[in-house]
Amino acid sequence: MAIEIKPGVVTGEAYQAVIAAAKAGGYALPAVNVVGTDSVNAVLEAAAKAKSDVIIQVSNGGAEFFAGKGYPDSFQAKVLGAVAMAQHVHLLAEAYGVCVILHTDHANKKLLPWVEALIEHSEAHFEKTGAPLFSSHMLDLSEESLEENIEISATFLERMAKIGLSLEIELGVTGGEEDGIGHELVEGADNSHLYTQPADVLQAYERLAPLGHFSIAASFGNVHGVYKPGNVVLRPEILKNSQALVAETHGTDAKPLDLVFHGGSGSEPEKIAEAVSYGVFKMNIDTDTQWAFAHAIGDYVFANERAFRFQIDPEDGTPYKKQYDPRKWLRKGEESMVTRLLQAFDDLGSTGKSVCA
Ligand SMILES: [Zn+2]
């Protein structure tokens, strides 16, 4: 590989080289949503153990939580929390020896000012270091018309490309909801709106490719969150057909599109593998790691119930400090999240494949 990729946050050409390595190697990277240093550190620990590169992602709500729910200005908290998370990762990813792609999650039209504020922070970071603070931001303008979706995305990408920032866009509609953004599933309907048309993907490619680097989350029946199975059928061949249409029209190599899989929680491993084979390099994971974190802490609380009710046991005077110390039970959550992520790296085929030198 021509570009040397060093541990730490990976941006610009190095980020594109990580994507190229994943597509050529037939694997994808999990994009793990984080809400605080506990979840960030669990991701770094897991990626170091798995010897995999990884994508750390924060939603607007996760960023707000990172800054503190008590912060009086909710918008500023979303900005400051995302920046604080990024700074924490910049420092520790290098120390852990892990290559991390820093991403933000779904931002609809209302959240465009949030992304703009983060781009400003990246521009300031670029002035100082020659690299942006984040690797990539995501816009989800799938509620708007295709034309407006693509035009707003183009405006953002033009500005972002100047400092080596990439853009992820969403085409078509992913069912379910994430942090208040999304579309309800219609029970019993054909849900045909959940499938992106390859012609739409071609249109986005033609507008955005000359401007900078971008990735596309195309809908192929995927659903955010975990729902009752059977309502929507996954059709990964939509991704294959989109790659083929762009390749035929523009004479590119076989997989010109860098594709992203949203709503992968609860999907069958065969469907995930099929999607990866069509050029998916990023799969969002949130619901499953939230569950892993929560249920391990739940188990601990149930097993140490009295320590969560009494500081000192009123019956026999037992002091419970060792059990209720937050480090004790938060660590249970982290450990369980690490275990779940090791499985995610395996499912996506990235274990042992880090391109970090
Ligand atoms: Zn999505």
Number of strands: 11
CATH architectural label: Alpha-Beta Barrel
Indicate the mean pLDDT. Answer: 93
Structural class: alpha/beta
Give the domain tally. 1
- Give a short account of the largest sheet: 9 strands, parallel
Number of helices: 12
How large, in whole angstroms, is the Cα Rg? 21 Å
Task: List low-confidence stretches.
Answer: none
Query: What ligands can be seen in this structure?
Result: zinc ion
The level of helicity is: 40-55%
CATH class: Alpha Beta
Description:
The longest helix is centred in the first third of the chain and has 23 residues, at 74-96. The protein starts with 7 loop residues before the first strand and ends in a 9-residue tail after the last helix. It is of the alpha/beta class and 357 residues long. The protein has a single domain (8-288), classed as TIM Barrel. The chain contains twelve helices and eleven strands. It is globular, with a radius of gyration of 21 Å. The protein has helices spanning 12-25, 37-50, 60-67, 74-96, 112-129, 146-161, 198-208, 237-250, 269-277, 287-303, 321-324, 326-348, and strands at residues 8-9, 29-33, 54-58, 99-104, 136-139, 166-171, 176-178, 181-183, 214-218, 259-261, 280-285. Bound molecules: zinc ion. Zinc ion (ZN) binds next to loops. Zinc ion binds next to loops.
